[in-house]
Amino acid sequence: MPARTYDGAGPWVPDDPTLPALREAVQACEGCDLFREATQGVMGEGSTRAPLVLLGEQPGDQEDRAGEPFVGPAGKLLDRALADAGIDPDRVFRTNVVKHFRWSGTRGKQRIHKSPTRGHVEACRPWLEAELALVRPDGVVVLGGTAGKAVFGSSFRVGEARGRTTDWPDSFPLARPPRWVLPTTHPSAVLRTDDRDAAYDELVADLAVAAELL
């Protein structure tokens, strides 16, 4: 029997959606193979009138179980960094470029994160486009390499781009693009580094740049 082919999330995205409609519709999505092993699809969380979108990679183990983004250790660190940068959490919409959790194996009861492929990112792009069209943020903070490549393309490197605002790229067309986009590291990378305090301070400094623009 030939392997199944996947054509992306487009057919599952409702026309003129609300956020509740997107959350319901993503549960039926079979736009790529990740739906097979994930508990559920995880759409963004926050006000659809938020001026700032935080864009990460994909839901993790805890997010996949809870059905909400950024509720695990990286999310808690991000909450603290937002507070230290002076950003009101009520002015933030949090989401990921990929809506299903990709994992490989377990460590105890926890499933081990595995980065999504470029194909997974492309398949999920219609969901992200729908969220950005709904929220219409002033700015987007891109968290980490996977999200950065989703927005800017395969040549993106976090270390080269972080902390500096730029225009939303023409290669990711939107009817109403954000006024600016700012890359920084993903909070999970802060948790993995040896010098966690320094990495955290750098994340807060990057977020403070965004705070000044809100």
Can you walk me through this structure?
- The chain is α/β, with parallel strands linked by helices.
- It has one domain (17-213): Uracil-DNA glycosylase-like domain (Uracil-DNA Glycosylase, subunit E), CATH 3.40.470.
- Helices cover 37% and strands 14% of the residues.
- The chain contains 8 helices and 7 strands, in the order H-E-E-H-H-E-E-E-H-E-H-H-E-H-H.
- It has helices at 19-25, 61-66, 73-85, 118-135, 145-152, 158-161, 187-192, 196-213; strands at 45-46, 52-56, 92-96, 103-107, 110-113, 139-143, 180-184.
- Strand 4 (103-107) and strand 5 (110-113) form a beta hairpin.
- Helix 3 (73-85) crosses helix 8 (196-213).
- It is globular and about 50 Å long.
- The model has no long low-confidence stretch (mean pLDDT 96).
- InterPro entries: UDG_Type-4/5 (IPR051536), Ura-DNA_glyco_family4 (IPR005273), Uracil-DNA_glycosylase-like (IPR005122), Uracil-DNA_glycosylase-like_sf (IPR036895).
- Belongs to the uracil-DNA glycosylase (UDG) superfamily. Type 4 (UDGa) family.
- Residues 43-208 form the Uracil-DNA glycosylase-like domain.
- This is Type-4 uracil-DNA glycosylase.
- One of its GO terms (biological process) is DNA repair.
